[in-house]
Amino acid sequence: MIVITTVYELIKKQKNLTNLEYNKIYKILIKNNLFDIPFNIDFLDKKIVKLKYLNKSARGLFKLCQRKFDLQRVKGIRVETEKTFRNMFGGNLHTCFDKCWNRINYIRIIRTKSEYDLAKYIFRICSNLIPKIERGTKIESGYNKYIWKYAEYEAYRIYCIFDELGRVGVKSYIFPLYRELKIENYNINETGVIDVIHTLTDDTCAFGDYKTGNVKYYNDKWGRRSIEFELGSYYNLLLDMDNVYRVVKGKLVKMEYLRLKNGFVVYLNDWRRTFKYIELKTSMITELNKIKEELIEAVNTGKFEMRMDDFCFNFCEYLDICLKDIRFKNRYWRMDPEIKKRVDDIFLPIDDLD
Ligand code: SF4
Predict the structure, then answer these.
(1) 314 lies in a domain?
(2) N or C, which end of the chain is more exposed by having fewer CB within 10 Å?
(3) DSSP class of 353
(4) Whose CA is nearest to atom 7 of ligand 1?
(5) Are residues 231 and 333 both part of a single domain?
């Protein structure tokens, strides 16, 4: 135990970890290593880096912009912006989509007269879960917009089941098998949260992801790549069930075997055209592994590509840092006068400042 106490602060400090991150790493990696093999800080160092970089959100960030990954994950620079609000909004919405299933009544569902009637019922339950502090504010209409789309999508999904099987004995297909499923996969040292897993009418399973952002379409080449990447990330977590655990109230429970066959990514802004069960393929994971290799290469060489497009100006909290980079400056020098002015202001010689 003394060893644990001694290295605890050291590892936390060296790796700039929060208590929560340390506890997670301790549970997954350190605990066993301390007992199974002689303690070795270099070994742990590699493991911690791996765990911090090789998870779904880290990969997603790397794909979005390598430079942003570098600033946020490697250099640990945090910039508080409105983005935090957007993330909270998305998080709260996901909580509504999850918790509403604790209140939805099966009998009430099967007695609905129409898909529209069911959508209204789900909407009412879901919208009661909007955080109290945000009710009666402008934000509430934002929540309601997405909750209505979610309710419409669920009503459609459920009425497809009615059309196929009728309304008797269909509860296990209507209610999600898992919601907000936290997974820890010890084989690949990855963790992730899966929005939902459904049992389909052929008794196979499909995992799903709800998106509130810009819509991507599966029949579009780039959209498909992006959706398959998302699906590959979840598939990778669940593929080899041998060493896969779900986290239940902080404890690890061995994951039961699932007959996973499909996945779906539903973009609520256009759920009618994006809700589709997509067959899972191992090629989805190959694509994912390519990103992993690129990520490791970039971390090891310290070379991170910059995105440099409209996204930077509209959505990225690191813009002011990037604008100081000569690559950015060169690229945007002849652009929109407004942007040039902003770049000029940032590069204003110290002497010219008041
Ligand atoms: S401003 Fe652009 S290049 Fe810089 S981190 Fe953000 S997305 Fe990447």
Answers:
(1) yes
(2) C
(3) -
(4) 312
(5) no
Rounded-to-integer distance, Cα 118 and Cα 194, Å: 25
CB of 210 within 8 A of CB of 268?
Answer: yes
Residues in contact with ligand 1 by the CB-under-6-Å rule are 65, 67-68, 71, 306-308, 311-312, 316, 318-319, 322
Instruction: Give the count of domains, the chain.
Output: 4
Amino acid 141 reads S
The SS3 of residue 298 is helix
The answer on 114 and 129 residing in a single domain is: yes
- The tens digit of pLDDT for each residue in 160-189 reads 999 999 999 999 999 999 999 988 887 777
Range of the domain at 150: 82-174
Does any domain span residue 69?
A: no
286, part of any domain = yes
Domain boundary among 153, 174, 195: 174
Which among 122, 130, 154 is positioned nearest to 271, based on CA atoms?
154
For residue 304, the 8-state DSSP code is -
